[in-house]
Amino acid sequence: MDIESDLISSNTKAKVGLLSHTLVPSPIIQWILPARLRGKHQNDVVFVGERSLQIKEAVSGVHLEGVTSKSDFDAYIMAAKVINVSTELPWEAQMKLGASSATTDATSKVENDLPPQILLLSLASKELVFLYYSNAHGQFIHHHRPLPNDVSTFERFGRNIAVEPRSRAVAVSASCDYFGVFMLKKPPILQSQMLQNQLEPIAEERFFRVDGDIIFMEFLYPKSDDGGKVILLLLVAQEHTTHAICYEWDANEPLRQASPRVTKKLLPVEDRLPTMLIPLTKTSSFMLITTTSMAVYRSRLDPRRPPSRYPLPVPDRESQRSPLWTRWARPLRNWIYNQKHDDIYLCREDGRIFYLGIGNDGEVETQTHLGQLCCDVDAAFDILDIGHEGGDLLLAAGNTGDGGLFVQKARDHPRCVQKFMNWTPVTDSVLVKSSNRKPSEVDVAGDRLFVCSASSFARGAIVELRHGIEAQIGLAVSLEELSGTRDIWTMLDGANGGVHVLISDPVSSVLLYLSANFGEEICAVDEVDCGLDFGAQTLAAGCTASGVVIQVTNQAIHLGATAESVSSFRFHYDAGQSIAIAAVDEESSLIAVAVRVQHETHLHLKRLTTAANQLQLSDVGHSLKIPYEPVCIFIESFDTACFVFIGTGNGKILVYRVEESAVQFLIEKSVDVGNVDDISKAIDSITTVSAAPEGLRKENLLLCGLRSGILVSFELVFDSHSANSSIAIQQTSSQRLGHTPVRVQSRAKLTLLTCGQGFWQASCIQNGGKPDCTLQKIWITDQNNPAYHPKNVFGFSIANIVNSDVDALSDTLFCIADGQLLICTLDRDAKTVPRRIDLPGSATKLAYSQYLKSLIVAYTQTEYDTESDPIRRFTRPRIEFVDPDSQHAVLDPLEPHTEDEPVPWRPQGAAGEKISCILEWTPRKGDEEYHFIVIGTSRKNQAEQGRVIFLQTMRDFSTPSRVECHVKHIHKFEQPVYSIAPYGGFTLMVSTGREIVPLEPKISDSRGIRAARFPVLSPALSMTIQEPYIYMSTARESLMILRVSDDKLTLHAHDRQKLDGLSHVHIGGEQNLVLASSRGGRVSILSESGVTESYKMMPAALCEAHLPSSVSKLSLGTKPSPVSSHSQVFYGTTMNGTVHRFMTLAENEWRLLRLLQNLCVRDPVICPFTPRRTRLRSPVGNDPLEFQPSQMHIDGDILSRLVMRGPECLARMLATGEFHTLSTPETGCPQAIRDRFSELSRELLGDDEGSSAVEMVMGWLKRCLHVEL
């Protein structure tokens, strides 16, 4: 539906829409390419995923840090290569020129800052994309070239791409029959284009046809005396033979007039299906890697020289597997070495790496086994083009298991220094729903999403998918002697670059010093040396720019100097006085304390000064009486003045203005938490958070953390024209975070807060034209223990540490958790932060027991009988109970254990048996309740191919963390069991073979339903119950609904389309809706309306979403929808690790979102790869008034790009007339579109005098698309 279609459409029938949004993108990394796409001085690496790419920069020597990403291709990426466009002469030529500086003189400074490389992608939408990143404009600059449309989609034009070694040409091929060659413009021309933020690299093109399947395609290196030649090699398979075909032409001739010299050679049978083709830099040779050997073909396809064959290295002959050699990479070496050598890294899919030394004539001279990477490598493998202490930096990733950055030194094993988490393939998922059902607790606990993953090498895992800001532990220091530690302050040592860390518990304090390089050593500072008091609790602390450490205890203010030329100082209060609360402002050297004297409390302000190398404290004005019991205090300097905020025990906020020599009370404000008498309004902590959006005035919020677990935010408005710098405070929102005190602090321009087990970063955003507070979870991770997560964070602080590698400040988090001081690197942006519990096998099914509060996972393990000939392999399924909060991997039952306590017994299936479903079943009979874990299995070679196993489980009373279980009963079926669902109190509906069979225990009083059967045309892969109906997703007939009546199973309704069903969720409502997913990425909303006894076919889908990947599991969420109160939230997981969120839409919500989506689709900034014909087409008058189901789907990923760009982008799109011409009036004039937008926004959101419609809509849209997991 286009914009004008929405303008004129009027349909009285209520519509149901569906908003989809990607919460967790797929972690699959297809390629890792060192490519300096931003500039020659940045060590960039491009991670290419399935539909997106991310640029990371190598910092601190051996760490990759995310810089930017691009995910608006709207198509799968089929291939990726790097093209060199630098105008600098190659390294070899520079060496020959010696000391000549002509090249340097001819290159301007601006050109030196240009990227020396661009990226080439081929998309499944049949187009090539050339791109680089412009630092000046902060965006990607791209050029895309559509590929021929007359090639069938199944032939996948763009599956193979190759780049000529001197970046003079690129070649693109389909999977068979077709390939094209594109000659590129010379680097100086491309650099001049890039200076103008343009890119049109193609000079000419030509397409060729070849009969057969194109297995590989690569350019060969020309010989030194054939520098003007371009040599393209293709391996083409036809029937049972494979030919190597070589095309050779002169690069200086026009491509269309050139007559390529074609050489064809039949490959030997042993080289017919190679796994790799490697162009060698010597004598225009290439190497073929097969499953059994390596073969080097020299001098292109010289028929006079047979290939040199070498056996593949086999370091583990005892292994029962036969992994393939899948990836290769060429290390960076100096020019002199490269004249006589061509070294190659070979990598096997199980992570084994070898080093090949190839001589000047193309012969393999050395083979060295280097060790094994701790990951599967079947996708990405490359070498970072920067040296590291005499070693190579290897980058590897696979479709299963983690990837990583490895340091490979000579004669040493590879060492992993950074991991790239991967949780694919996802075989099952479960949503652990919040146990809080009260409306007042709805915001406290959210849903937790767990997935289980398989692996080709028995490295499965349970992964909790979370979203937020990652804080990765770099150093952990035990604090056993300070078990009660609750406060922490960090202070930078400006002279030496280190950090002072002051830690305090209720009775003492400790000052630690961490050196600048953050080594393993951390030392305690002596009390005498620093001039502080370690025998008392620290209430506040700070460090001034001159290096003076300020410590406030309950009786004194201590000033400790880090410089030897300045002596320490302390100010003691009288015996009858004590400090209740205190705050230190490091920037202004201001100290605020609330001093309690008998039954009164007074506010004292002091300023630190230095005279004659002596530290002094001078009073700022007179003390002021505080009318209420103070609990917390905070100092903040704004543009207009400096203010002191005090939070009290009765929920009052007191604001004071600080002048040079006076303090003035301004206003008093109360927090509003509703008309609830039993909620404490005591303000436990107080701070500010600010934001300065581009082009907008600076916004400031005051955040108050209450002891009752509520966070309250206030807008701060200043009157800069007032003589006394007046301030106004207005409450904007309140949200419950838990039931324990909310502790909020601002350090180094970051605002963090904790409540219970939650840890967040707060930000100030524009919401409907007004400032509001948004929270992002902080997840602390440990690379050495992927299952780790702290139970509680008791104290935290932030320090800006200077990073010499990037010449910038990096945020370092210091926090206290689990009896340790954790020093973490805090990411700047939110992302997916997985937590992984490793399994000793490949996971297949996952469930959650509410009764046991435990995950139940089914995984398979493979054992080998090496004594038999041939070797026999046995793969058996196992069941394990896993605590969702477990911080350790699951123990391998096949390995011996050193623990004193025996490992609990766990059920094990027969060899070849597969567990198809797991569920918790709690039948009740009178006052008695029975608890079972029911497991459905399938076997191939037994007479009874299906089993239903009943397990009785319970927690061990002596060790509550252990779960004991035993088999209670086994029921066998002739056919495999696919799914099970509980019906009523004592019945299980079992899908076995092509039949639905009720199963009841003997203790059941019912007898009639046991004999009921219902045949189905294909197995029911998933079943749910809404009595008296049974909903089934079948393998070939999509959704079917059965009815239980009169002890019979009868067909109630079925989908009119025969699709490969996967999963479904019952929605209900007036139209009796069902959300169903099927293969091919289809997600549909179906309705049972109109179904009768005589007409069982359901109406056409009300809405259909066509996603890039099939949703294998749908789950209903418990959190309320951000769209509206009537909307429902669902989660969908796919095998490639993507998690989608779905929300139902009412008609008015759908119409507004559809208008926004249409505006985005035709905008070249938000959707740069939308074909121009799609932007301009207007089917008004051709489309029926009843919209197609696919038009009822709203793509939240497109709308999220609009949210990133803010209200200004939407205002621009509403005002543009680019797509409206007199010849195409049906596209809608800008005024008509604005009027329609105002009408829809007013109908949905109402009017607000203080905000424009654009700001209100953008605020609502931002809430709808906010990611929270």
From TrEMBL:
<dbReference type="InterPro" id="IPR004871">
    <property type="entry name" value="RSE1/DDB1/CPSF1_C"/>
</dbReference>
<keyword id="KW-0539">Nucleus</keyword>
<dbReference type="InterPro" id="IPR050358">
    <property type="entry name" value="RSE1/DDB1/CFT1"/>
</dbReference>
<dbReference type="InterPro" id="IPR018846">
    <property type="entry name" value="Beta-prop_RSE1/DDB1/CPSF1_1st"/>
</dbReference>
<feature type="domain" description="RSE1/DDB1/CPSF1 C-terminal">
    <location>
        <begin position="927"/>
        <end position="1201"/>
    </location>
</feature>
<dbReference type="GO" id="GO:0005634">
    <property type="term" value="C:nucleus"/>
</dbReference>
<dbReference type="Pfam" id="PF10433">
    <property type="entry name" value="Beta-prop_RSE1_1st"/>
</dbReference>
<dbReference type="GO" id="GO:0003676">
    <property type="term" value="F:nucleic acid binding"/>
</dbReference>
<dbReference type="Pfam" id="PF03178">
    <property type="entry name" value="CPSF_A"/>
</dbReference>
<dbReference type="GO" id="GO:0006397">
    <property type="term" value="P:mRNA processing"/>
</dbReference>
<feature type="domain" description="RSE1/DDB1/CPSF1 first beta-propeller">
    <location>
        <begin position="29"/>
        <end position="420"/>
    </location>
</feature>
<protein>
    <recommendedName>
        <fullName>Thermotolerance protein</fullName>
    </recommendedName>
</protein>
<dbReference type="InterPro" id="IPR015943">
    <property type="entry name" value="WD40/YVTN_repeat-like_dom_sf"/>
</dbReference>
